[in-house]
Design a protein that fits this description.
The complex is a heterodimer of chains A (305) and B (202). Chain A has helices at 15-20, 46-57, 75-85, 113-124, 206-212, 231-240, 271-284, 288-296, and strands spanning 2-4, 34-37, 66-70, 86-87, 93-96, 131-135, 138-141, 146-147, 156-157, 163-167, 171-173, 186-187, 195-199, 218-222, 246-249, 263-266. Chain A is α/β, with parallel strands linked by helices and 305 residues long. With 202 residues, chain B is of the alpha/beta class. Chain B folds into 2 domains: 2-147, 3-Layer(aba) Sandwich (Rossmann fold); 159-200. Helix content of chain B is 46%, strand content 13%. Chain B has a 5-stranded parallel beta sheet with strand order 2-1-3-4-5, with helices on both faces. The chains are: A alpha/beta (305), B alpha/beta (202). Chain A binds chain B through residues 21, 23-28, 99, 109, 111, 114-115, 118-119, 122, 135-138, 150-155, 166-171, and chain B through 4, 6, 34, 36, 41-42, 53-62, 77, 79-84, 86-88, 103, 105-106, 108-109, 112, 114-115.
């Protein structure tokens, strides 16, 4: 069980005392707690993703599964990153946390992280080989998940093929959609930090952007609700950054209306999956052609069909 | 009262008969039993309830009053169910045939201050199985958690009843719902037929 972010009442040197407050956990599995990051998880950076992946990698043959406790605000990024840093997993890596910022006596359920943790630990004992999220009553493939705003303990959702299990009385795994990996785990210690992330909006200053992207290995554009790209932006990608791969994440823009060959439209992945996959792909190849090939290839179950 | 009963559904015939006997004892005591032994183990919930539970992210164990496990043949998920039931503060009756040993983690939970009051570990024989179950039901019914009105249902009333309830509770500190609950509690206390039904099943 890896702790990646602060938990009320938990101190680094008192992990075992904290666990002792939940004696029921011991009946499901033997737990070894590992402290990875102690500040609030909003402070997590790609360096912590890599550290977390390394902590799991060095224990992969010693444990049946891994549970990561993480704040829910940015858990999609960390869990998605793990799915690219630890490819062809041989064990389940289950992220969980609390849907509530704090658990008060006024909360009639007062279960906080506890119920999620018990579900996550049970899932971590299963024969699964994916990075998942376990909150509420659903087990989701992390790199296909999105946060939802409904008033529910299920604060994340995924398309049907990304829902790997559900709890009624016990936990039912949907065997038809789980990925079965063969062979050895492939672990990576690097993600490109030279990616320019651009959010498309009318205030975007293209002159400043042109300067910023000069030393970048890749550019990724979140095009929001735009149906077309601004002409000046296409010009920038075509003339000034023509050797740099550009990913446009869009639900509305069609690939055939984009001219420059260094541009790739992505509309079959979540935003965190697109960004982090691009960061990983750029560590594998700098060529535009190879980058486009790898981005189109399903690496860790991230592509939504 | 709703109870979830779980046991090894691959167990030998002799044990399967025992499981049926447990379900019968519970059902005869007026309990709605859901079980992994039945094909549709969620039959105690309406489709609207199930839809709501699915939507809100709850688990079904939150909506039952207690958990009964027959663990003579090991059930892989029994530890998980015990842990989840304890988290949701549901009483648990864990049954083993006489002569079988309880798992050391269960014994630890049975002694731990925070969990012991909810977890009852019992070895049984044919002679005392029924008594153990009925005593447990009594404990569930009287238990601290059962005193909290947590079961919801829709009651449609006429304007006449509404007017009466408003008049009855006006300028008092009790709500209309509290008044109705009090009335039903009084009826239970005075219902000789129901008292006989309870004692016959004890």
């Amino acid at each position: 069980m890896l702790i990646c972010g602060s938990i009320p009442g938990l101190q680094k040197d008192k992990l075992n005392e904290w666990l002792a407050q939940m004696p029921e956990v011991s009946i499901i599995a033997e737990i070894e707690p590992v402290f990875v990051f102690g500040k609030s998880s909003v402070n997590i950076t790609p360096e912590i993703w890599i550290k977390l992946a390394q902590e799991i990698r060095q224990r992969i043959d010693k444990f049946a599964g891994f549970v990561v406790i993480h704040g829910v605000g940015n858990v999609l990024f960390t869990s998605t990153a793990l799915s690219f840093l630890l490819q062809n997993l041989t064990r389940p890596v289950i992220f969980t946390g609390s849907q509530f910022a704090s658990v008060s006596e006024q909360d009639p359920r007062r279960t906080g992280i506890r119920a999620n943790l018990i579900n996550a630990i049970q899932v971590a004992t299963f024969d699964l080989t994916e990075v998942c999220l376990m909150l509420g009553n659903k087990l989701l493939r992390a790199n296909q998940s999105e946060m939802i705003t409904e008033e529910s303990l299920n604060i994340f959702s995924a398309p049907a093929n990304g829902v790997l299990g559900r709890i009624d009385f016990s936990i039912r795994i949907f065997e038809k959609v789980v990925r079965r990996n063969k062979g050895k785990i492939k672990s990576f210690d690097e993600l490109s930090s030279k990616v320019e992330i651009v959010h498309l909006e009318p205030m975007l200053d293209l002159k400043t952007l042109a300067k910023r992207v000069a030393d970048k290995e890749g550019i990724i554009v979140n095009s929001g609700d735009y149906h077309r790209l601004p002409e000046d932006l296409i010009f920038l990608f075509e003339k000034i950054t023509r050797d740099v791969p550009v990913v446009i994440w869009s639900k509305n823009i069609k690939a055939e209306i984009i001219g420059p060959k260094n541009i790739l439209i992505v509309n079959n992945m979540t935003w965190p999956a697109t960004v982090i996959k691009f960061m990983w792909v750029l560590t594998q190849s700098k060529s535009v052609k190879k980058t486009k090939e790898l981005m189109a290839h399903d690496v860790a179950g991230e592509i939504i069909y | 009262m709703k109870i979830y009963f779980t046991a090894d559904n691959q167990a030998e015939e002799k044990l399967q008969k025992r499981f049926s006997q447990i379900v019968d004892i519970l059902s005869n005591a007026g309990v709605l039993v859901m079980s992994n032994l039945a094909q549709r183990n969620i039959s105690g919930f309406s489709s609207q309830d199930l839809e709501k539970i699915e939507r809100t992210g709850e688990v079904l164990l939150e909506r039952v009053d207690a958990l009964v496990i027959e663990g003579t043949r090991n059930i892989p998920e029994s530890g998980y169910l015990v842990a989840l039931a304890l988290t949701h503060k549901k009483p648990i009756l864990y049954l083993l045939e006489n002569g079988k040993a309880f798992n050391k983690n269960l014994l630890y939970l049975g002694k731990d201050q925070s969990t012991a009051k909810l977890l009852q570990l019992e070895s049984y024989s044919d002679a005392d199985l029924e008594k153990i179950i009925l005593d447990f039901l009594q404990l569930v019914e009287k238990g601290e958690e059962r005193q909290v009105p947590s079961i919801k249902f829709t009651l449609r009333i006429t304007p006449r009843i509404e007017r009466y309830l408003r008049w009855k509770t006006h300028n008092t500190k009790i709500s209309k719902a509290d008044y109705l609950r009090g009335m039903v509690e009084g009826m239970i206390d005075n219902d000789e037929g129901y008292k006989k039904f309870i004692s016959d099943n004890r």
